Amino acid sequence: MISTVPRNFVIVSGTGEGYTPLNAFDAALGTSGIGDLNLVKVSSIVPPHCTRIEPQAIAPGTLIAIAYAAKTSTLHGEVIAAAVAVGLPEDETRAGVIMEYSALGHKQEVEEIVITMAQKALESRGLKIRSIESRAIEVKVEHDAVAAFAGVVLI
Amino acid sequence: MISTVPRNFVIVSGTGEGYTPLNAFDAALGTSGIGDLNLVKVSSIVPPHCTRIEPQAIAPGTLIAIAYAAKTSTLHGEVIAAAVAVGLPEDETRAGVIMEYSALGHKQEVEEIVITMAQKALESRGLKIRSIESRAIEVKVEHDAVAAFAGVVLI
Amino acid sequence: MISTVPRNFVIVSGTGEGYTPLNAFDAALGTSGIGDLNLVKVSSIVPPHCTRIEPQAIAPGTLIAIAYAAKTSTLHGEVIAAAVAVGLPEDETRAGVIMEYSALGHKQEVEEIVITMAQKALESRGLKIRSIESRAIEVKVEHDAVAAFAGVVLI
Are the C-beta atoms of B90 and B129 separated by less than 8 Å? Predict the structure, then answer.
């Protein structure tokens, strides 16, 4: 096991543009407030009793676990969106789920889909839904490469 | 360094179906017995003296290291398969390897390939083979998105 | 948080060939000197006061954080390259960045691009550049699958 169980989560999102898709991704992390952290991608569980907190200062370079959706594009005029949803069950002794989705298109569609994904992930576990929190963001390609990013940091 | 060296490994596999490929992947993790863990993907070494154990209860939401193969499909009628192989060397002071493979097709072919991959990975290190353990699984797309998953949890 | 903040980094690179793309990747890790470690991919920050060191012995199977670029190919005659750049700011209290790039083509182009990526990533943070260190490598497909790999291990 890598670590103890996360106790808090933070929902973040942002968009960015840059020289390459990776630069755009890096810029989107910056606008998300996590640009100077080392992200370790996880799939993607909210432990029991893990509660949402607001973004907080974390030392630069810290390795943090994060579930995220990201999409990049270099095609002028294209709109891309990324979204995450956190689904928590009524039974607080059970784990919740994080779902991620990104696609060509607008934030409304992408957010609807990611919310449905979280609902279905809880239902497939036989759990009643206490809450679904979601976050979506979109960006249109204007000049450079762009990225849309939405994530759930597990702390 | 993120952690100490893993001391045990567990081989898991499962299939699932769902609303999206990610829901199917999530369901496949559930049937694999690791649906409520936070998976951190690693590539993919069995440390010396790291031994296989049977699946055991791990607290929901725990971050765990895992090497895995996964494939998803939404094409009605398609068969997909995922497989892992753990290759251990005769010399117990040396590390073993984990190989992952997934593809369209049936578990027999995929398992043969992943076993050969593990053999060749040990041979390319100049190691004699003590054992190869493998696990493969397949699933046919019927209604929703489906996923095939095979993994080696490093604990 | 998974860990404390990394204090040192090591730049590595290598190429390999093998039965499948994953075997080639595994062989490239071997020539990079990290073939027996469990790699956890991160994106991709150099913490303040994190300094470069030479490769050192790490116990086999250890989980390590690494930012990397990798490309594989099976097309006879194709040349592929992978590169990383570490960009450090003049202000030593601020984090640096790691950029990764891989593509069809030769190491010269790929290295130029990754250096520009690191420059732009620092500029987009409003930071003056103290140094950019880069590493690139290329390989031509001859018989089997091949892989080019360049990475920055965070210790």
Answer: yes
